[in-house]
Specification:
By secondary structure, the chain is of the alpha/beta class. It has helices at 34-37, 49-67, 85-93, 136-146, 185-194, 215-221, 226-237, 241-256; strands spanning 2-9, 13-19, 26-28, 75-79, 96-100, 123-127, 151-155, 181-182, 198-201, 205-209. 39% of the residues are buried. The mean pLDDT is 95.
């Protein structure tokens, strides 16, 4: 890797960013500001938190039902799941989703925290997480190991060609200091190849799997008709909303009875 540029991070630190001409990977070199950057796990500038989760939930619902042929029996894990919004949305679609996050409080999916004792998952999701990782390979391996699964569905914005100038790409998020790894299509291809995983993408929502992926079906599930497809999925599977409500009440009675 070689030096790409420097930029001011968190309004006061000089950050150096390195770039690999071969695989197109761009990352912060020794991001010493991370402790301060994560004084709050969810940044105040993340105004797209709700709309992003609503959008991605419909696409993941279509993916699980039509691509993975899920019919309500499988278990799923949203790793680094933030406030638990995606986990709650996916349960509302009828999928048995669970939450995990080392750094954030579970506010919206309480009672559905994942533990390894539950057993393996059919897939793990990691939405807007990989760009936070100092070691993407380790993160991917850990995610697959924790979920005891062969499939990782994740999102991260991609760039093409040379790194965008520091003042010309919002995704750098220098004001928060949390985004430190940046990828291109060729970067993800190289990662998948080196880890002996299959890879598919629609440009921002990606999948790594040890089993072969139908690229055409993947694109169909994550494209313009995802909302319609996910509506059908919810009708077929049935939301877990009221079942979860009743089960949590019973659990509370048992714990305090």
């Amino acid at each position: 890797m070689h030096s790409a540029f420097t930029a001011i991070v968190l309004g006061k630190y000089e950050g150096a960013y390195n770039y690999c001409n071969k695989c197109g990977f761009l990352c912060a070199n020794e991001p010493y500001w991370l402790e301060e950057a994560y004084s709050s796990a969810i940044t105040f500038t993340d105004t797209g938190l709700v709309s992003r989760n609503v959008s991605v939930a419909s696409r993941i619902a279509a993916l699980l039902y039509f691509l993975l042929r899920e019919r309500g029996d499988g278990r799923y894990l949203d790793i680094a799941g933030g406030y638990g919004l995606l986990t709650r949305l996916m349960r509302d679609y009828g999928f048995d989703f669970y939450w995990a996050d080392k750094y954030c409080q579970n506010l919206m999916a309480r009672g559905f925290e994942y533990t390894p004792f539950m057993g393996g998952c059919r897939a793990v999701t990691a939405i807007e997480v990989l760009e936070h990782s100092e070691d993407p390979v380790k993160f991917i391996n850990d995610a697959l190991d924790v979920g005891q699964t062969d499939t990782l569905i994740f999102s991260t914005e991609l760039f093409e060609g040379n790194p965008p100038p520091p003042d010309n790409w919002w995704y750098y998020s220098f004001e928060t200091g949390q985004h430190i790894s940046f990828f291109q299509h060729i970067t993800l291809e190289a990662l998948a190849s080196n880890m002996e995983l299959h890879f598919a993408t629609n440009g921002w929502l990606h999948i790594f799997s040890r089993t072969k992926i139908n690229q055409s079906l993947y694109c169909a599930c994550t494209g313009r008709f995802a909302a319609i497809m996910s509506f059908y999925v919810r009708k077929r599977l049935g939301s877990l909303l009221m079942d979860d409500h009743d089960n949590l009440i019973q659990q509370n009675y048992r714990n305090h009875g």
